[in-house]
Amino acid sequence: MYRQGDVLLVSVAEEAVPPHAVGAPREPRDGRGRLVLALGEVTGHAHAVVGPGELVREPGPFGPMLLHLPKGGRVVHEEHAAIALPKGWYRVIRQREYVPGSVRIVAD
User: Superkingdom of this entry's organism (predicted)?
Assistant: First the structure.
């Protein structure tokens, strides 16, 4: 398990990757060539992956994402130390918080 701010990355065995992830549409890279895992609504900073890989968003407003890094990669953010990730699949989970009457994704 790896954590950077409000983003949690959990390693997933390849055989446990849901079949829909293999053929699902991939998230596009941003203008800097990064796979953005979470964009800070307040600061504009991003938790992002640099290097080769693919990002699949699962359905639903709180649906996690699946990240595939065939050669490994790094998670970067302007205010955190970079995290090196070994090659493989990861479930990307955003931290949530309870507010009376609802649950929302944490905004940084």
Answer: Bacteria
Q: What does the domain layout of the chain look like in residue ranges?
A: 2-105
Residue 31 pLDDT > 80 = yes
Strands (E), the chain: 2-4, 7-12, 35-39, 46-50, 54-57, 65-69, 73-77, 80-85, 88-94, 96-99, 102-105
CA atoms within 13 A on the CB side of 37: 27
Backbone angles phi, psi at 77, to 5 degrees: -160, 145
The identity of residue 73, as a single letter, is: G
Residue 20 or 4, more confident: 4
| pTM recorded for the entire structure | 0.79
CA distance linking residue 26 with residue 79, whole number of Å: 27
